[in-house]
Amino acid sequence: MWRDGRGSVVAMAAACLFLTACGDDVVVDEAKKAGRSAATFPAAAEDYFKGMDGGVELSRDEVIGRNNWLVWTAGNDRFWNEITRSAFGNFDLLKTVSSHPSLAFGRSNRFRELGLINEPCYQAPTKGANDKFGLWLDVRRKGDPACDAPDPFADANKYPGVKIGARGGAVPVGSYYGEATGVVGLRLFPNPDFDEKAKARWDADRYYTDPSYYNDKDLVRPYRVGMACGFCHVGPDPVRPPLDPENPTWDNLSGVVGAQYFWIDRIFGWNYGGEKDRKRWEENEKNYLIQLVHTSRPGALDTSLVSTDYINNPRTMNAVYALGARLGVAKQRGRETLAGGEVNNKQLPDYFDPPNTVFTPRVLKDGADSVGALGALNRVFINIGLFSEEWLRHFNPLFGGKPNTAIEIDVGRKNSSYWGRPRRRRPISRPIS
Predict the structure, then answer these.
(1) Nearest to residue 194, comparing CAs of 173, 215, 177?
(2) What is the residue extent of each domain of the chain?
(3) CA dihedral in degrees (52, 55, 56, 60; nearest 10)?
(4) CA 297 – CA 282 distance, rounded (Å)
(5) Rounded mean pLDDT of the chain?
(6) CA atoms within 13 A on the CB side of 60
(7) pLDDT at position 13, please?
(8) For residues 253 and 235, what is the distance between their CA atoms, to the nearest angstrom?
(9) pLDDT above 70 for 6
């Protein structure tokens, strides 16, 4: 949660139920609990996405920024796992990245059915379940010279993940960038709650086919799925679109055009049935969660869906174009006065007049960037789950029914090791006209 210059509460997309328990107890994130500091999460500089956005040449810092945008999830796999558990299986990103025959979508039609971008160099499992836990997850394509180099971010030796709970026991620790899921912007992490007891209870076939099993809020899945900023921002490059939108290359994708084809109700309500099962769709239309997200038409999103501002206002996705020109307009007529804890936020030096005046382009429809362009950018990491241990204590997600309170920036800096990392490695982008 974040308060902007007008005092309104702003937050971004997600879906959740009954997670809040506000109080005065101090909480820390998983990384800090495991003894990790922000300094133990160095940023990746591999130029793995070089073909994107027309193959524009980037400096090392710009490459780091792009990697941060596309693969850094800041520990929010915990947040999305909590949403899955508390939504009783209605929302489940682990199903979103699957290709099981019972689903209305899979690798072959993920763009058409969900509006999601298939990650280049991956393919659906060819003989059913390929994963050691029986899941139908995408696999790295072999025999393609363009895909010979592995995903560098999944290197657990170079980027060691947070060892906590069952990580390092029943499941590996993995990388703090996770592994590719086959969907751009979603990363796969071993679930620290998947202990020997959970492993003994796990049944992959029932996970896909048995509602009494997968709707159980106490079901522990072997993986958690984290979300990077790029999940909502990568789309087909309008100048170099893919011939087959289900099989793009990095050259066909843009990191700034925005996810203009999202079907939010299908992503947040995986069990919609689709063309394969009209009866299931008709049944799910009676589901409150489906009804709520179904108000977002393709390419639209209510940016305060989780924060529950009691206003249902799905709007179009923003493209991150012409940053230089937008900031130029900010100097002319984008003056905002910060107050309270807002003054603790970091700002772009050229667009900040200490102690409390900021100049903002006012691009975001909900007014979120009235805290300044950099403040709004930092806010996104929280909105998609950064430091959910604290965040979820400040409001009742989705359903509301209680006053919202603001997260203090100083609390995040003090109690979250993941918090410090994105602040040091914000996306860096050249102005694009």
Answers:
(1) 173
(2) 2-31+318-424, 42-316
(3) 80
(4) 18
(5) 85
(6) 3
(7) 31
(8) 6
(9) no
